[in-house]
Design goal:
The structure holds 2 protein chains of 2 kinds. Chain A is an all-alpha fold. Chain A has 6 helices and no strands. The longest helix of chain A is centred in the middle third of the chain and has 30 residues. Helix content of chain B is 75%, strand content 0%. Classes of the chains: A mainly alpha, B mainly alpha.
Chain lengths: 142, 181
């Protein structure tokens, strides 16, 4: 496509003379008749995201404290710097159902290892191409 | 002026004088948005309508724009939707298929008044019109406006990988169509 040269990128579409000057004036005068929704942002709205972060951190601290308190009643928890791998495995890993995790992840791992392409990218591409998903299902079934 | 600097100047102006701020937006973006729309809808009158609707829409929603994306990608997304709405409306109201320049011109008041292309440009435009809508948008963005895939991804809410694949296939399709005609 690049070999076709500049001729194909010259613009075959034309506009009336002074169109862009006039359209700017037309748009501005048209929009001045409509209300916009620019409003002053209240202090509460400005601070809301920071309050949300502070609340989340507070919640994490409380949960972390509760977990530590709960765990201390059953197990001896050393400080992170003192814990060794064997102790870590005994205390934490055995609480996780490894087999269930592997089963859940298996299909995802196989898909990504096999294709090297992200699932979302494939779906996006199919949508861009306006491909009918029913056609794909039919191909897979027969 | 860099995009980010321009955007921040515009936002400052919108806070103090919304009309002046919006005028600056129109002044900075109307030409680019017009050509983006025009290449999709082909006809000048349709592009003119869609451009005005784009800015009306932007004016009504400027307060909701939260700066998560750049003003540029936000406006392009609105313009793209307006163009697609117009194309679909035109297709619904027409009894014939509008997939080449001749049928589009024949089905309009302006005809080919605002088109002055040579044979090669007619072939290219007809080939582009054969692409699915979204693929046309991707092709135009890359070929005519040289947008980055990252910017396209923000405008079209599609992954970069899919956009690259789509552009690559669009080029192949267009080359095939042109060599056969």
């Amino acid at each position: 496509m690049e070999k076709q040269g500049k001729i194909l990128q010259d613009n075959p579409f034309k506009v009336p003379e002074n169109y862009f000057d006039e359209i700017s004036r037309k748009i501005v005068s048209a929009t001045s008749g409509f209300s916009s929704e620019v409003k002053k942002v209240s202090l509460y709205r400005k601070l809301r995201p920071y309050m949300a972060i502070a609340a989340s951190l507070a919640l994490l601290v409380i949960i972390g404290y509760a977990i530590i308190q709960f765990s201390n009643s059953d197990k001896q928890i050393a400080s992170l710097s003192d814990i060794n791998l064997e102790a870590f495995t005994e205390i934490w890993i055995n609480d996780i159902d490894i087999i269930k995790l592997e089963e859940d992840a298996a299909s995802l791992v196989l898909f990504e290892e096999g294709s090297g392409v992200d699932k979302k990218e494939i779906i996006d591409y199919l949508l861009l191409e306006s491909i009918d998903f029913n056609d794909i299902y039919e191909q897979l079934l027969y | 002026m860099s995009g980010k600097k321009l955007d921040s100047d515009i936002f400052e102006l919108l806070e103090t004088d919304i009309n002046k701020g919006f005028s600056l937006i129109v002044e900075q973006y109307s030409t680019k948005l017009y050509w983006h729309i025009r290449r999709l809808v082909i006809l000048h009158e349709d592009a003119d309508d869609a451009l005005q609707n784009t800015f009306l829409n932007a004016w009504r929603n400027i307060g909701k724009f939260r700066n998560e994306s750049s003003l540029y990608t936000w406006l392009y997304a609105i313009a793209t939707n307006e163009a697609l709405t117009l194309i679909n409306k035109r297709a619904r109201n027409s009894e014939v298929s509008l997939d080449d320049l001749e049928s589009i011109f024949a089905n309009s008041r302006e005809g080919s008044t605002w088109f002055d292309g040579n044979e090669a440009q007619v072939k290219l435009q007809n080939a582009i019109l054969q692409l699915p809508e979204k693929q046309r948008i991707v092709f135009n963005f890359k070929y005519y406006e040289d947008l980055t895939y990252e910017d396209m991804s923000k405008i079209l809410k599609t992954s970069v990988g899919a956009l690259k694949a789509s552009y690559h296939h669009a080029v192949k399709k267009i080359e095939n169509i042109i060599t056969k005609t």
